[in-house]
TrEMBL record:
Organism: Sinorhizobium glycinis
Quaternary state and interactors: Homopolymer.
Transmembrane segments: none
Reaction equations catalysed: GTP + H2O = 7,8-dihydroneopterin 3'-triphosphate + formate + H(+)
Name of the gene: folE
Keyword flag Coiled coil: no
Keywords: GTP-binding, Hydrolase, Metal-binding, Nucleotide-binding, One-carbon metabolism, Zinc
Keyword Zinc recorded: yes
Annotated PROSITE patterns: GTP_CYCLOHYDROL_1_1 (PS00859)
Annotated GO biological process: one-carbon metabolic process; tetrahydrobiopterin biosynthetic process; tetrahydrofolate biosynthetic process
Name under which the protein is recorded: GTP cyclohydrolase 1
Taxonomic path: Bacteria, Pseudomonadati, Pseudomonadota, Alphaproteobacteria, Hyphomicrobiales
Length: 205
């Protein structure tokens, strides 16, 4: 099933984003709603801490994946086989309940004359993880960014993650894992390439 890919705007201070003071006041409102006293000693600095942490946790809105992927390398000595970066850890947040998604991403592509620096792949995973997300959308966004920027012969992205919205609330099923994939190019059209991708995932330690 193809996921719906959402385009996220890059926000700046003129886009209607609330001020630091407004964001901190929103945290105080939530503390009062939860039954707490925001003025007590242990919570006095909590709004500022929460806003500071949110700026880091949701920092992906201020970054553009295509900019990170802009530099590629053509000196590959004729290499044209699968490049796989496995077990890239990430932390994201569910857009429905704003609780953590904890998982790892596996990203592969088939070069078409150019390759990416390995750190670029991990950074792209981080950019999309540091936004409010669904796992399906995040999987497709990573694949699309690499596919459109690098123009390889194919991209394969697999994400496996635990959603704390299922573990902490609702059905409360701790330890369940969700698996999603997006395939493009040869990985989508050639069953042999799909099989090689899955074999490398299982065998690469």
């Amino acid at each position: 099933m193809d996921a719906i890919v959402k385009n996220f705007p890059v926000l700046d201070d003129t886009s209607g984003r609330p001020t630091q003071k407004e964001a901190e006041e929103a945290v105080r409102v939530l503390l009062r709603w939860a039954g707490e006293d925001p003025t007590r000693e242990g919570l006095k600095d909590t709004p500022a801490r929460v806003v500071k942490s949110y700026r880091e946790i949701f920092g992906g809105y201020d970054l553009i994946a295509e900019d990170v992927l802009g530099r590629t390398f053509e000196e590959v000595s004729g290499y044209d086989d699968i490049v796989l970066e496995k077990d890239i850890p990430f932390y994201s947040h569910c857009e429905h309940h704003m609780v953590p998604i904890i998982g790892k991403a596996h990203v592969a592509y088939l070069p078409n004359g150019r390759v990416l620096g390995l750190s670029k792949i991990a950074r792209v995973v981080d950019i999309y993880a540091r936004r409010l997300q669904t796992q399906e959308s995040m999987t497709a966004q990573i694949a699309r960014a690499i596919d459109e920027t690098l123009a390889p012969r194919g991209v394969a992205v697999m994400i496996e993650a635990e959603h704390l919205c299922m573990a902490m609330r609702g059905v409360k099923k701790q330890g369940s894992t969700t698996l999603t994939t997006t395939l493009t190019g040869a990985f989508k059209t050639d069953p042999a390439e799909q099989a090689r991708f899955m074999t490398m995932l299982r065998g690469f330690k």
